[in-house]
Amino acid sequence: MKEDLLQYSWRFGLFDHSNLKTQDGEEIKILANGVINKNAGPDFLNSKIKIGDTIWAGNVEIHHKSGDWLKHNHEKDSAYDSVIMHVVYENGTVIKRTDGSIIPCLELKNRISTNFIENYEKLIQNDSWIPCESHIGKVDDITISNWLNRLLIERLEDKTSVIAALLKGNKNNLEETFYQLLANNFGFKVNGLPFELLAKSLPLTVIAKHKNNLKQIEALFFGVAGFLEQDHSDKYFLELKAEFNHLKLKFNLKPLDVSIWKFLRLRPSNFPTIRIAQFAELIHKSHHVLSYILECKDPKSITKLFETEASNYWNTHYHFNKESAKRIKKLGDTARTNIIINTVAPFLFHYGQIKQLENYKELAIGLLDSVPPENNHIIKNFENLGIKTRSGFDSQALIQLKSNYCAHKKCLQCSIGNKILNQSTKN
Prior knowledge:
Layout: H1 3-11, E1 28-32, E2 35-36, E3 44-51, E4 54-65, H2 68-71, E5 83-90, E6 105-107, H3 114-125, H4 141-169, H5 174-186, H6 188-201, H7 204-208, H8 214-225, H9 235-251, H10 272-285, H11 289-295, H12 299-305, E7 317-319, E8 322-323, H13 333-355, H14 358-370, H15 377-384, H16 392-404, H17 415-424
Helix pairs in contact: 4-13, 4-16, 5-6, 5-13, 8-9, 8-10, 12-14, 13-14
């Protein structure tokens, strides 16, 4: 009997409650199982249990064997003096508090359904894509929907830890932090880091001095990115290079090594040159992007901001000095959705947290609910199992489910797993 399964059985009362007695034969009546403790100390807090004629309020500790109390050195820790009941699968050792008083013990051996234990073992031992692959289709929609709602919040909270760290490094400058995160997202997975380095090497304060001149903004971005260190005879390239040579001296800018940018195996529309040009256009259109977003009252206004396209030169180019068939280089729907899901919504949620403004957290959630779901193997596999995705809200929640629960077989911490296991006790 694994300890986490024993904790689960206690938490949800999944054991035979008839004729419960301590090791000394005193009658036990459980009035409140308590709240699971995820920090140091006893496993369950604020429990209430009637032992004999006395009602006790305190904490509960769970172990496979009663002797595990000594293995964990709890007898030397006064934090465990608050334990009113030691719940074990198998009892065999008398356990005392630091003052020498005996802690009542409840043994659950032979009280937990063998069917329940077997179903749990089958879940965590199978090699399916997710442990409950053959059962999830039988779980009701309300259970799944409620769990996905919680998972979405959990995923947003996980992402805010990354934002908080970057914000701290930027001395709590919200605009600069958002600008750097947005740049990273424009590079997607392949060029995310080069884009982030570009943003960190070219502060918004520099761009702001030239916010009304797109050519100068492009010169700054392509120059710091290292592309203007090359030699080409292209007229537009030479114009940008001349601009950058002046701005480089003025602001003491240092170009990155152009070799950090990746083109291999990318579609031409995703080349870093095109993404930089689109990013330059976005910053030119609204160099205080975060301020604009914070003033928006609805998801549509935010989404519209990212309907950006590269300047005219790039309609006939993917590289400097190499002309191509004419094509307007708009930021595609998938790219915009990716930016909304991975940068804008998490940042709005974090802003709502640090400012204690619920409307921004609600806007973040509404934003995710307004964009299409992601299209990746995780979402496709869940859809094959009958789990439908309507929006980015659902796809983000499902990614959290797969990554943080299914991949680690945390069925006991998952509401879907709980439902399946609880049903097994009734069969």
